[in-house]
Amino acid sequence: MPIVKYPRATEPLWHEWDRKAQKCGLRHTVYAVNGDQYTGEWLDNLKHGKGTQVWKCTRAIYSGDWKFGERDGYGSYSIPDPVTKEYKKVYTGWWKNDRKCGYGVTFYASRKRYEGEWSGGLRSGWGRMYYPDGSIYEGQWLENKPNGQGMLRLPNENRYEGGWKGGKKHGPGKFFYLDKGQLFEGIWAADIPKCGILIDFGRDEAPSPTQYPIPKV
């Protein structure tokens, strides 16, 4: 009985190319059409695991955790200095859904620094802000502004402790004028004290006390 040989079906080349193009696990640097590059782990063609992304347009670098194509977990974001061209960290901390979320530290161009909680890419929760003039705010934040209870300490050590709303002093609060040895306690609205009492507070230790003490009522 004669043996009939059937021609072996050849697989289209694009099938092989497609298999090789599938990204899963640790891969070498992969370049996007726009010039961005990513080196790290993949899952089902999405950045997933540990990896480093470099954006061609801004030359910014993110190195850290990824989850299904988005920054998620712990990582740091850096940009090149426009003058020295050396990289400087902008943010180090936690991410979720490609946004800052959780605890992290941000360095601003004007020598400001924020250490605290984030939500949806905005300062929200508890945090401490260092300002260029030496002032420090520590307390609650909501959508990038002091909101809730917090303390603002000025360079001359005077400080405000109390309520905040939308970045301004609001509600019951105390302002310690330690340079003059006085304390104002009252109610604030939109950064303006509306009513309260002013008393001597540590006047004997104050560096610049008032000429006369406040008489007791």
Automatic annotation (TrEMBL):
It is found in: Cytoplasmic vesicle, Secretory vesicle, Acrosome. The gene is Morn3. Assembles a suppression complex (suppresome) by tethering SIRT1 and MDM2 to regulate composite modifications of p53/TP53. Confers both deacetylation-mediated functional inactivation, by SIRT1, and ubiquitination-dependent degradation, by MDM2, of p53/TP53, promoting a proliferative and cell survival behaviors. May play a role in the regulation of spermatogenesis. SUPFAM superfamilies: Histone H3 K4-specific methyltransferase SET7/9 N-terminal domain. SMART domains: MORN. This is MORN repeat-containing protein 3. Keywords: Cytoplasmic vesicle, Repeat. It holds the Pfam family MORN. Gene3D superfamilies: Histone H3 K4-specific methyltransferase SET7/9 N-terminal domain. The keyword Zinc does not apply. One of its GO terms (cellular component) is acrosomal vesicle. It comes from the Eukaryota.
